[in-house]
Design a protein that fits this description.
The chain has 126 residues and is of the alpha+beta class. 25% of the residues lie in helices and 29% in strands. The strands form two sheets. Strands 1-2-3-4 form a four-stranded antiparallel beta sheet. It has a three-stranded antiparallel beta sheet with strand order 5-6-7, with no helix packed on it. The radius of gyration is 14 Å and the shape is globular. The two termini are 18 Å apart. Pfam families: Asparaginase_2 (PF01112). This is Isoaspartyl peptidase/L-asparaginase-like. Belongs to the Ntn-hydrolase family.
Length: 126
């Protein structure tokens, strides 16, 4: 899983030592699943967005519902936008974003699902 918001740092992507470090935007727990998020770094940190997604999955929500709930909480608490993708330990996938666009993709059972705009789910065979 990966979400990346390009910045000045992205001009140095040819150098592995110059890769942006993973901060608050990613979280995983082998017993539950993993998530990667993007958005305003300060807002993502304030609400521990990625950790909350995994927490909601621990509580029984699907990755899709967990991602949506965590981003709704972030919007309500700090009035900020973002997006996230998550996968459960069983391979269930979810994504949600409350921004205008977010590039996302997942592969499962030989099918590539991808999109850019809200509600978009394009499918092709791998």
């Amino acid at each position: 899983l990966n979400c990346f918001s390009p910045s000045v740092e992205s001009s140095f992507l040819h150098c592995s030592a110059c890769q942006p470090p993973v901060r608050n935007g990613a979280y995983s727990d082998n017993a539950v699943g993993a998530v990667s998020s993007t958005g305003c770094g300060e807002s993502v940190a304030k609400v521990t967005l990625a950790r909350n997604v995994v927490f909601y999955m621990e509580q029984g929500l699907s990755p899709q519902d967990a991602v949506k709930k965590a981003l709704t909480v972030m919007k309500d608490r700090v009035d900020s936008l973002g997006g996230a993708i998550a996968v459960s330990k069983t391979g269930d996938f979810g994504h949600y974003f409350n921004t205008k666009v977010m590039i996302w993709a997942s592969v499962q059972n030989g099918q590539l699902h991808y999109g850019v705009f809200p509600g978009e789910d394009l499918v092709t065979t791998c």
